[in-house]
Amino acid sequence: MTFDVIDFHRRAVETPSHEDVAPMRSLVVETLQDAGVDPRVDEHGVVHATRGGGDPHLVLNTHIDTVAPHIPYERDGDTARGRGACDAKGPLASLVAAFLRADPNGTVTLAITPDEETAQSGAVAVAGTFDADGYIIGEPTGLDVCMAARGQFSGTVTLSGAAGHAADPANGTNAIRAAGPVLQALDSYDEAHGPAPDSTLGAPTLTPTMIEGGEAINQIPAECAITIDRRSVPPETAAEFPESLAAHLREVCPDEVTVDVSLLGSPENFDDPFVTDADDPLVRALADASGGAVRAFGAATEASHFAPHAPTVVFGPGDLSVAHSADEYVELGDVQRAADAVTDVIETF
């Protein structure tokens, strides 16, 4: 099959997908159709395509949405810049190239999701529907093979007291005053209740990122809200975390202040941590093919939704540190090298 991976990458970056992924999805569908593949788009907006047959079954996944704002495509020699150049239209181009070029040793499925940067509902919906032997998730890893990632979820700690006139502080319960010991208790949560540091991922983190409270300058604030960012390690899950944290914070709050901890979304839509065995055959095959190091990934990823079902790795061209930035770029030679490595795995795994 003839497929120009560099030209596809250019067209993908030129197609804005920070507000509406429909044009980008159409580009993927039309590209597959032009190559003789019959893709389908499911009710969640996920593009599916399959080649080959029998075992083993490898699933290639990445996403077509990007963060704002759109940045136009520019090329300077081997370097391509623009929004999505590495996150994740570089990995997308590599996976599409491998999918189309490889002579599968078994079955290979391409599953392209629409909303990784937001709700991840596409990955949540399809992750458990494949009878797969392994997943390769396209993200910028510098051609390293990332077999683990910390989880990520955000939430709100709400402190509730009672409003009153500021001229007489005793006639109310000041929720903002309770924020002081609560902020200190956030720092002690992991030592008291959190999971131990993971041998691959290290220690979890718990970071307050925003705080809001009060309605008037002369009123005792009845409520204070603290937004938190949690980067988790096994075996912690998003579902169990809120009540565990709330119980810890209640120990330091005045009795008259109530504490509630809630996630900013459904637990199933957040990324739980995952670790794939570094000696798993999929990890070793991709590391041998790419020449990359085996390590943990530095950010949350849809891989966490696939990892409970089969060995999962994160892999692709580009540098994660420039993703989402004004100078996002990728080296086009790495896009081709990533495609070659995944092709090799599809044919030999």
Can you give keywords for this protein?
single chain; 349 residues; alpha+beta; 6-stranded mixed β-sheet; 9 helices; 29% helix; elongated
How would you portray this structure in words?
The chain is α+β, with helices and mostly antiparallel strands. Helix content is 29%, strand content 26%. It contains 9 helices and 18 strands. A 6-stranded mixed beta sheet has the order 1-2-6-3-7-17. It has a 4-stranded antiparallel beta sheet with strand order 11-13-9-14, covered by helices on one side. α3 packs across α9 and α7 packs across α9. The two termini are 21 Å apart.
How would you sum up the global shape? elongated
Distance between the termini: 21 Å
How many helices? The count is: 9
The largest sheet is: 6 strands, mixed
- From the alpha carbons, calculate the radius of gyration and give it in angstroms: 23 Å
Secondary-structure content class: alpha+beta
**Total beta strand runs:** 18
